[in-house]
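Consider the following input, taken from an annotated entry for 60S ribosomal protein L13 (Phanerochaete sordida).
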Amino acid sequence: MGFAHNNVLHDNHFRKDWQSRVRTWFDQPGRKLRRRQARKTKAAALGARPLELLRPAVRGQTIRYNRKIREGRGFTLAELKEAGISRKSARGVGIVVDHRRRNLSEEGKALNVERLKAYKARLIVFPRNAKKPKKGDTTGDDLKAETTRAQIALPNPYVHEAPRKITEEEREFKAYRTLRDEWANAKHEGARKARAAKKAEEDAAKKK
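Applying the prediction step yields:
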């Protein structure tokens, strides 16, 4: 392609030796293999420790996702206290603690307490010195029990009920009408109270 008309002449620089400045990634397969071997070595050194830390079962945020149960950041201090696990020893046995989280419902708290108790029942703590086991270490035949590194599964978010016949009371119940009435009551509650108070004042003034 040649030059034509009264345009600016090209001033391209093609002597920058760009090949030496390109970042290559030829060691990707080798690095992948080394990472895999490092993970295997670390897992072997950890022994029968669980693959992941234990986290609480929490509901997703907002109306869109609160039907689902997912893993939370950590257990609350109230949940640990009810399950009989101290805050210090929790992290040592693979339980994550989140001191900022608060329990907003009794059902959610009970669910996580049961989760902690189930984990505690399955837990085997190998003593560092077999001759001098410390408080909380597993002793006796429990040390020979079969171990698993799989984590405790999250509970089912739905409680399925057995099929049954609809009662006459349920058949007569008008859900939409009830919701609208409750919404109207909540909306006009302040105005109704103010009107009632004003009327009471007027009646008191008339009696005088």
